[in-house]
Amino acid sequence: MNCDRPAILTPLLDVATAITVTYGTGDGAYADAVTGRVAPLGRLPFDLPRSMDAVRAHPEDRPGFEDPLFAFGHGLSW
Known about the structure:
- By secondary structure, this protein is mainly alpha-helical.
- It has one domain (1-78).
- The chain has helices at residues 27-35, 52-57.
- The longest helix has 9 residues, at 27-35.
- It is elongated.
- The two termini are 20 Å apart.
């Protein structure tokens, strides 16, 4: 998924084995990473909220969430 801002991924957790996220990466670079041509590396640049309720309750001028689904810096590399 292309994620240019925090997205709510909670509904996907029960049905997806893996979720890959890009932040504007070109198609070729993304394909190289998911096919193993290059070693993927990535960390979240922001928290991903658990729900729209969390988004609505959170002040717009404060970064992060109290209990994010995935926190800033979460990611994988191999």
